[in-house]
């Protein structure tokens, strides 16, 4: 039995010719951003990848098919607030495919399907990580374990301050995941360029990153690479503005009985959007576009290193 995989013709052609391809996730569309900015952003991110000279491949499960490269109608359906779209991670991906369901892929599930399709680079906004209070709740995102397993480089804007950033970096180190920040020594904190943490490593060119990815493959080491790309200055929200808002959102989540497990991250993102009166969303869109550009450049360098362009 072969996996139920549909690769869009432009993506398949690029992969066959070793042209650069960038995978994009769909949970950010279905569960990470409000309508209609979710759909508008998904289209803009694809355009940003194309503008930098790579082919975008947004990934989702549609009627039981792992779909690599989505039509505009599919993007619109995933972003429809009335559509029933499951949030898929490593746990529930196979069951959703088996029952011919529809699902949006998190970072973990997108990595699995990108790898199945032969895509090496993936751009997103924020990854899941170790939640604050994880010493009691044990809430650690499957995204971190996926980075230890699956050979896909993930470009993000660092970890959100809804997470415990020092613990997230500790777990990544324990799992042997390389973490590289682009262009600065501080690990970025999603809405802000700075955090209280130093990045485990820094790269100042995309070629350095591509060479490290290639060497990891040459050594036969399993797992991916996390690349943290600081939010552009113009899109930043200062940490002291975000701190009380994040604290309030977390307090509300703790006071709401049904908010745990996979519902936690979407709840926090939605409350922070409301409490910042939309500013968090504008920042989020700015940083995702920035990550799409960087991921496309890394994908181009990887194709160049493979020597077929
Ligand atoms: N962080 C964001 N925006 C998002 C997500 C995380 O800033 O949309 C989504 C991603 O799809 C990520 C998932 O993979 O949430 C993590 O969910 P959890 O914490 O339940 O593992
Ligand atoms: Mn979780």
Q: What small molecules are bound in this structure?
A: pseudouridine-5'-monophosphate, manganese (II) ion
The succession of helices and strands, N to C, reads EHEHHEEHEHEHEHHEHEEHEHHH
Report the CATH architecture of the largest domain.
3-Layer(aba) Sandwich
Poorly predicted sequence stretches spanning 5 or more consecutive residues? none
Measured as a percent range, the helix fraction is 40-55%
Strand content: 5-15%
The largest β sheet comes out as: 11 strands, mixed
Number of domains: 2
N- to C-terminal distance: 34 Å
Mean pLDDT: 95
Number of helical stretches of at least 4 residues: 13
CA-atom Rg in angstroms: 18 Å
Shape: globular
CATH fold-level topology of the largest domain: Indigoidine synthase fold
Describe the protein.
- The chain has 309 residues and is of the alpha/beta class.
- It is built from 13 helices and eleven strands.
- The chain folds into two domains: 119 residues, Indigoidine synthase domain (Indigoidine synthase fold); 188 residues, Indigoidine synthase fold, CATH 3.40.1790.
- Strands 1, 2, 3, 4, 5, 6, 7, 8, 9, 10 and 11 form an eleven-stranded mixed beta sheet that branches.
- The model has no long low-confidence stretch (mean pLDDT 95).
- The structure holds pseudouridine-5'-monophosphate and manganese (II) ion.
- Pseudouridine-5'-monophosphate binds next to α2, α8 and α12.
């Amino acid at each position: 039995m072969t996996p139920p995989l549909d690769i869009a013709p432009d993506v398949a052609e690029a992969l066959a010719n070793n042209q650069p391809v960038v995978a994009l996730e769909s949970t950010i569309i279905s569960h990470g951003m409000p309508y209609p900015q979710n759909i508008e952003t998904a289209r803009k991110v694809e355009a940003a990848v194309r503008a930098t000279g790579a082919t975008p491949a947004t990934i989702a499960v549609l009627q039981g098919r792992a779909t690599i490269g989505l039509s505009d109608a599919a993007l619109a359906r995933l972003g429809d607030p009335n559509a029933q779209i499951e949030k898929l991670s490593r746990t529930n991906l196979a069951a959703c495919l088996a029952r011919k369901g529809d699902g949006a892929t998190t970072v973990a599930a997108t990595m699995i399907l990108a790898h199945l399709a032969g895509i090496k680079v993936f751009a997103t906004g924020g990854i899941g990580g170790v939640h604050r209070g994880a010493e009691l709740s044990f809430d650690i995102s499957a995204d971190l374990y996926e980075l230890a397993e699956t050979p896909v480089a993930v470009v993000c804007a660092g970890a959100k301050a809804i997470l415990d950033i020092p613990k997230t970096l500790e777990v990544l180190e324990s799992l042997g995941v390389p973490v590289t920040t682009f262009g600065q020594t501080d690990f970025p904190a999603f809405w802000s360029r700075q955090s209280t943490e130093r990045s485990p490593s820094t790269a100042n060119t995309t070629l350095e990153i591509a060479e490290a990815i290639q060497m990891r493959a040459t050594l036969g080491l399993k797992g991916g690479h996390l690349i943290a790309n600081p939010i552009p200055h113009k899109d930043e929200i200062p940490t002291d503005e975000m701190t009380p808002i994040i604290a309030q959102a977390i307090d509300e989540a703790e006071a709401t009985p049904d908010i745990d497990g996979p519902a936690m991250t979407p709840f926090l993102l939605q409350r922070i959007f409301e409490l910042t009166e939309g500013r968090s969303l504008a920042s989020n869109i700015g940083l995702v576009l920035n990550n799409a550009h960087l991921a496309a450049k890394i994908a181009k360098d990887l194709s160049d290193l493979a020597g077929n362009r």
